[in-house]
Every structure is written in structure tokens, then in C-alpha cells.
């Protein structure tokens, strides 16, 4: 399995009573799969995984697996918990369900040391017979996974196949790509920021796991496909559209609220509901002005 291209960190649709909107979830997964995204990451940060029970995380994963329109759309299940053994158990349940890979972040309560961090990921890799994607998001975990830990993990565990890095530092990406590729050329490095998609590709990275692709996946795909085909002029043009769209994040108090409001503004069947303590975003007029030139990217199929 090659981890590359446009992966969508799936938002979790809710009804007004905060229960999971199963029909909305089915629609969204189908929409993304039909548009040709390379992967869908369920139980993501923007998917409010920290507000889901373990049973709900499994339910979301099952619906995603059942709703994708093509097996070329890979399903990655977030299996992050603060207890390593619980993560292992959850990951094994996901394996039985048929996911293509699991995504695991550093513990997000305990500020563990480097050795403990290495042990955490190593125990999971040794006990879970699935491809594993390391999720580095220090904004939420308080831990920036050191490159030294990456180097030890990728040299010791062949099933650790890639990483999603949500870190605002091109210098970190440059060092990570350079040092990891000396050990494993097949290790995939993806950004978690929409803005970094094209710069990372130019640096030798593999793609991105980007929240706004929930709504307008064709735009991100145009960036990636143009770059892959060597059409750098088009890649730059589409990337500037992505950059303009990311201004939506400045209007709302969370990435999740931004994306859900965008889906509402685009008249998609996803309710503008987040689970407390998050709150919804109501800056509809500003967002409508931002998307008026993007209608060509909004058809429901390729």
C-alpha cells in the first residue's frame, strides 16, 4: 500500500441531539470516494474523535467501510487513546473490520519522555498486524515527536509506513524527509495543513491529510494531480485557490466548526452541529464570498 495524494480527515456528522448522523456520514464518505480521494481518515482530530466513545469510533469506521464506492479509496482508522494497551485492542478490532491502516498519535494527556514515546509506538507496531501511520500533532498532544524517534521506529518496524505531521515548520519537514529517506525510501510523509500541500510535494513529501478536502476534494486533487503530471503551472494555480480557501479557518474558533459551516454553505446534507465543548461557527456571509469562484470543483462525481 502506497500512502500518498489527498487523504481526507473525515468530520463526524451529528444530529441536533449530538448523536451520530448515520445518513449524513454515509453520504459524505460516498461523495469523497466518488470524487477520487486517495484515502479517508476516520476518527480524526477534526472528526472530534476525542468526543467519541470507543463504540462510536467503531460505528463510524464501519459506516465508512460500507459506504466507500471504490476500494482504491483507502480507509484509515484513528486508534489513539492514552492507554497503549487500549490502543492495541482498538486497532485489532479495526483490523477485524477490514481497515487498510490505523493512525496513532502520541499520548495526549501524559507528557511522556522520548523512551516512553518510542515504547508506545513500538508496542503497537509489534502487536498489531496492520500498516501504521504516526500522527504528529503537538498542538493537541503537547508532544512534538522527535526525528530521532521516527528514525528508530522506521528502522525497526516495517509496518510503520508513514506519518501525518500537523506542524507549522517547513524546516522540520525538510529535516524529516532528508533523514528518514536515508533509512527507508518508501516511508510516506504527509502534511496536516492544507496550505502545505504543494510546498511539501516540492520538498519530496507525498501529499496531505487536509480538512477542507471534506468539502471540495477536487480542488486538492487538482493540486496533487497537476504536480504529479509535471504541470507545475496548474499546480501553482490550484494551490493558490487552496490558500485563499484556508482563510475560512480564521473566521471560526476551531477547524471542525470551519469545515462543518463550509459544508452547510455548500448545501451539502451535513448539519452544522459540533459536540460541546466546541461551538458552531456562524460566519456564513464571509464564507459565501470566498467560494463564489469555486463552483467548477463542486460536482458530486469525477
From TrEMBL:
Source domain of life: Archaea
Active site location: 135 (proton donor/acceptor), 164 (schiff-base intermediate with substrate)
Keyword Lyase attributed: yes
Native source species: Saccharolobus solfataricus (strain ATCC 35092 / DSM 1617 / JCM 11322 / P2) (Sulfolobus solfataricus)
Keywords: Lyase
Binding site for pyruvate: 209
The protein's name in its UniProt record: Dihydrodipicolinate synthase (DapA-3)
CDD domains in the record: DHDPS-like
EC id: 4.3.3.7
One Pfam family from the record: DHDPS
Lineage: Archaea, Thermoproteota, Thermoprotei, Sulfolobales, Sulfolobaceae
An MF annotation (GO) of this entry: 4-hydroxy-tetrahydrodipicolinate synthase activity
Protein's gene: dapA-3
Uppermost EC category: lyase
Amino acid at each position: 500500500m502506497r500512502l500518498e495524494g489527498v487523504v481526507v480527515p473525515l468530520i463526524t456528522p451529528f444530529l441536533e441531539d449530538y448523536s451520530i448522523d448515520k445518513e449524513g456520514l454515509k453520504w459524505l464518505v460516498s461523495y469523497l470516494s466518488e470524487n477520487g480521494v486517495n484515502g479517508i481518515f476516520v476518527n480524526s482530530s477534526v472528526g472530534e474523535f476525542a468526543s467519541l466513545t470507543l463504540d462510536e469510533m467503531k460505528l463510524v469506521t464501519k459506516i465508512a467501510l460500507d459506504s466507500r464506492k471504490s476500494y482504491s479509496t483507502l480507509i484509515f482508522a484513528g486508534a489513539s487513546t492514552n492507554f497503549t494497551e487500549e490502543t492495541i485492542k482498538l486497532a485489532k478490532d479495526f483490523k477485524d473490520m477490514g481497515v487498510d491502516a490505523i493512525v496513532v498519535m502520541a499520548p495526549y494527556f501524559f507528557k511522556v519522555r522520548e523512551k516512553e514515546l518510542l515504547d508506545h509506538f513500538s508496542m503497537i507496531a509489534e502487536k498489531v498486524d496492520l500498516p501504521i501511520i504516526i500522527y504528529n500533532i503537538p498542538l493537541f498532544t503537547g508532544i512534538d515527536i522527535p526525528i530521532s524517534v521516527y528514525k528508530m521506529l522506521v528502522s525497526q518496524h516495517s509496518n510503520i509506513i508513514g506519518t501525518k505531521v500537523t506542524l507549522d515548520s517547513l524546516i522540520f519537514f525538510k529535516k524529516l524527509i532528508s533523514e528518514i529517506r536515508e533509512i527507508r525510501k518508501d516511508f510516506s510523509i504527509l502534511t496536516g495543513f492544507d496550505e502545505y500541500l504543494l510546498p511539501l510535494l516540492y520538498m519530496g513529501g507525498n501529499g496531505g491529510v487536509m480538512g477542507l478536502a471534506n468539502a471540495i476534494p477536487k480542488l486538492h486533487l487538482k493540486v496533487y494531480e497537476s504536480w504529479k503530471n509535471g504541470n507545475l503551472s496548474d499546480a501553482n494555480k490550484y494551490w493558490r485557490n487552496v490558500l485563499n480557501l484556508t482563510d475560512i479557518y480564521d473566521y471560526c474558533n476551531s477547524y471542525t466548526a470551519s469545515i462543518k459551516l463550509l459544508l452547510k454553505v455548500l448545501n451539502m446534507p451535513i448539519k452544522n452541529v459540533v459536540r460541546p465543548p466546541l461551538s458552531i461557527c456562524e460566519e456564513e456571509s464571509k464564507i459565501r464570498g470566498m467560494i463564489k469562484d469555486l463552483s467548477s470543483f463542486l460536482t458530486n462525481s469525477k
